[in-house]
Amino acid sequence: MAARRDDEVQRDVADTLLGDVRLDISDLNVAVQHGDVHLRGTVANLFQHHLAERVTGRIKGVSRVVNELNVAPTAVRSDADIAADVVATLLRDPWIDGHKISVKVKQGVVFLDGLVDSYVERASAEDDVRTVRGIKKIDNGIDVAPGPVRHDEELASDIRFALLRGLNLGRSEIDVSVRDGVVRVKGSVFSIETRRAIEDIVRRTPGVNKIIDEVSVVT
User: Fold this and answer.
1) Number of domain units in the chain
2) This prediction's pTM
3) Range of 203's domain?
4) Could you read off the pLDDT of 86-127 as tens digits, one per residue?
5) Packing angle of the helix pair 6-19, 46-57 (nearest 10 deg)
6) 149-188 as b/e, with b when 16 or more CB fall inside 10 Å?
């Protein structure tokens, strides 16, 4: 499969972002070098900041997204108001224990700390907070408590099976090794979305304490 030229990728990324009705990016600038895409410009909230990156990652020929979009909320809110909304949002989510998470806000930047039971809870907390108005950035310092102790080979076997079942990726595409609950994944895939899906599957597997992601995207 021939690699796409950087100018083709640049044109597709710019057209896609400017044509997406969910996005309003001012002064958009897209730079591409060897499949690495740099996004610059200004959006009104973290939801659009995150969405622009996800949309870009789905475009053929993109191997990496460097999101340099600036978040400039249209309505300035006090740190106290933002903090109150963040806490309320976390407590409303039935899938996480909001009482385990501490929240601090400084000049629109939200700092999350605490100890949760899974990587899913950690990611869900950040997703929840991203919906709160007025936030410029999230610093997710939440730690994940060690999961149940499992034999490394048993854990590796479960992950390999999940990758094969969920993404049709076998040992020839992705190599999985585990040592003391630390999972290392290696290999090559053809899209950023697949790479993210691999990480998501690994994170959701009980017993994983840490992930070393060495999966590359081939364009």
Assistant:
1) 3
2) 0.76
3) 152-217
4) 999 999 999 899 999 999 999 999 999 999 988 889 999 999
5) 140
6) ebeeeebbebbbebbeeeeebeeebbebebeebebbbebe
